[in-house]
């Protein structure tokens, strides 16, 4: 079957104070319709930049993005508008993308009106139907963003995205600002909607535990590069890149004392500045398995098994056993 989305060697460099910042470097993946790719990384890893490039809210410097058989870099502005209907994004802070002076029902209707979907009456009926589908009462259509909780607002954001019948939804840290119990509800809602509408997701988070439930495949980003990519089960059962192992350990050990928390952070260390990335393997200053070669030579992407890749000098060496 043809993938819904193909991302091929996409890169993005920004100029910051006269220096080059490689925000995203040579990222490739394919995504089948109805599936979820989880993208995990710390802040500054390039995950939001990548999401924006897929939507072409940001132009990539090189590489190709093929959506539904169409090479997005060749699409004219006008066609892009029609394509955008098929590709929606949900942000961490839904308030930021809602007009504070517009009722949430009007905001959802407005999204449909912009894309010339239905009549005024049919759009209004659809607003109510969508609100109900995301677990909100009818009356909420008359409420303004400041009157709603974070969880309710995120449901409104989801309803608005759904109103356009998208194929792909990019979820950029959609639950990070919510209480844990609400996070679970919103993730379950996203999963139910995916099944019902055969939605395809890119789910971006700094938290591996959050992407686990939804993802079919997971890509781990570190300083703009994919350091490991695998089917979700495989990534959790056989994490191969030392960075993925650190991320996994940090979700398994919930720190319950300040001392423990302190210890965890000192093991992990700080993320280096993307403006001045370390030579060789960019993870080497934080890596418990770093060897001399890691300080000078950049590791290539290597296959661990079918569909499972890691960018680490340990892959294929006997030492890899110790890292697992
Ligand atoms: Fe660690 Fe070396 Fe692998 Fe980088 S290449 S993750 S420093 S072992
Ligand atoms: Mg971000």
From TrEMBL:
It comes from the Bacteria. Gene3D superfamilies: P-loop containing nucleotide triphosphate hydrolases. Belongs to the ABC transporter superfamily. This is ABC transporter ATP-binding protein. Residues 5-248 form the ABC transporter domain. InterPro entries: AAA+_ATPase, ABC_transp_ATP-bind, ABC_transporter-like_ATP-bd, ABC_transporter-like_CS, Oligopep_ABC_C, P-loop_NTPase. SUPFAM superfamilies: P-loop containing nucleoside triphosphate hydrolases.
